[in-house]
From TrEMBL, chain A:
EC assignment: 2.1.3.2
Organism the protein comes from: Natrarchaeobius halalkaliphilus
A single MF term (Gene Ontology): amino acid binding
Pathways per UniProt: Pyrimidine metabolism; UMP biosynthesis via de novo pathway; (S)-dihydroorotate from bicarbonate: step 2/3
Class of this enzyme: transferase
UniProt protein name: Aspartate carbamoyltransferase
An example Gene Ontology biological process: 'de novo' UMP biosynthetic process
Catalytic reaction(s) noted: carbamoyl phosphate + L-aspartate = N-carbamoyl-L-aspartate + phosphate + H(+)
Residues the record lists as binding carbamoyl phosphate: 53-54, 103, 131, 134, 265-266
Sequence ranges assigned to domain Aspartate/ornithine carbamoyltransferase carbamoyl-P binding in this UniProt record: 5-144
Binding site for L-aspartate: 82, 163, 226
Quaternary structure and partners: Heterooligomer of catalytic and regulatory chains.
Function summary: Catalyzes the condensation of carbamoyl phosphate and aspartate to form carbamoyl aspartate and inorganic phosphate, the committed step in the de novo pyrimidine nucleotide biosynthesis pathway.
Span of domain Aspartate/ornithine carbamoyltransferase Asp/Orn-binding: 150-300
Amino acid sequence: MRHEHLITSKQLSRADIETVLDHAAAIDADPEIVAGRHAGTLLGLLFFEPSTRTKMSFETAMKRLGGDVVDMGSVDSSSVKKGETLADTVRVIDGYTDALVLRHPKQGAATMASEFVDVPLLNAGDGAGHHPTQTLLDLYTIRENAGLDDLTIGIMGDLKYGRTVHSLAYALTNFDAHQHFISPQSLRLPREVVYDLHQAGDGAGVREHETLEEILPSLDVLYVTRIQRERFPDENEYQQIAGEYQIDLETLSVAGDELTVMHPLPRVDEIASEIDDTEYAAYFEQAHNGVPVRMALLDLLLESNGGDTGE
Amino acid sequence: MSNDHELRVSKIRHGTVIDHVRAGQALNVLAILGIDGGDGEEVSVGINVPSDRLARKDIVKVEDRELSQDEVDVLSLIAPDASINIVREYEVVEKHRVERPDAVEGVLSCPNPGCITTGGEPVTSQFEVLEDGVRCAYCGTITREEIASLIDT
Ligand SMILES: [Zn+2]
């Protein structure tokens, strides 16, 4: 991997993605191949927004590589509460660590932060912007379950604010994937994302829908995201819309047998628990894949930045 | 240039005439240039003047001021058809069309309230110039029609 920072999935070529996924698969098969490889390496975790899952999977990944993490702690107890800028925070922590992971509520935060640091910075979510490491584990899960070429995928839910959706959509333009976006009118893809997908030459591979029914039978993968109550000013409007984007076994009765259902957890009630034990469900597997994928990514990034590979 | 419409705004001796500004954009042109008359500049503005090329156009004449390339670049975002005439001793000594730059820095502010550039960080706004709009280099937001409203004055 040539990149110093991982800010958006747009910067990832097909070759980059395959390098990470292949390495993740090798680690998944035999974690020993990287055990202790980054002893003495410190990863800084800067989470300006709570995310237990992403944070813990980075922490686990780094520790399994033999390194350690330092954690800013919750925003409530940090100097951020006192009004320090993000630029100042990252400049300071940059001096302590070998790499940084940043989660921040503002869009573009990772891009800006990367201008103030020398160590590699990984964007773990910036507002409604990007979440490229989630995308890599999503792609890993898709590849394991359905393959990445000749893929027909439905991406459903809150497409407007869903950074995991934007990141995944960009990355999929590297593959022979037909992308169907299913959402209520008010939560459609932002126009800049549509613009980018067309710029990537993938205009023909992108379709927008308001209902799942018509497209469900042709899907290999259904990627479900949460529609958040707070996006709607009116509770009734939310209730009406949310119900139409929930899936249960009955919804899936018209789906192909090979359908893989994914979700960048946590879910609330988008996917009925009766689906959990079926062959469709891949969302817990998807969450578990976070560790080998992040191990692979950190291993490649730290190695290419002159870290001690223990060899 | 020298038809009778032009006489509606006075001739200038030294300075810049920004001609063929899209109708209704003259005041935005002044905003971009940071001209509010507060420094005593002599400025003439024609709004909705008849024009062969644009049907209606605006025209701005600024006495004793020659525009820099940076200023011309930014003007191009709201006045893509404008021509810039540099005047010395009542004569047009240079005449050029504006050209759209690839990017502009520090002149527009992002309309996205969720963008990091709106949050008190030590960061200069940057916009990529697209064929029909501008795009924030930080959050990616694209603005097409309302560019003038983003001008940082
Ligand atoms: Zn922005």
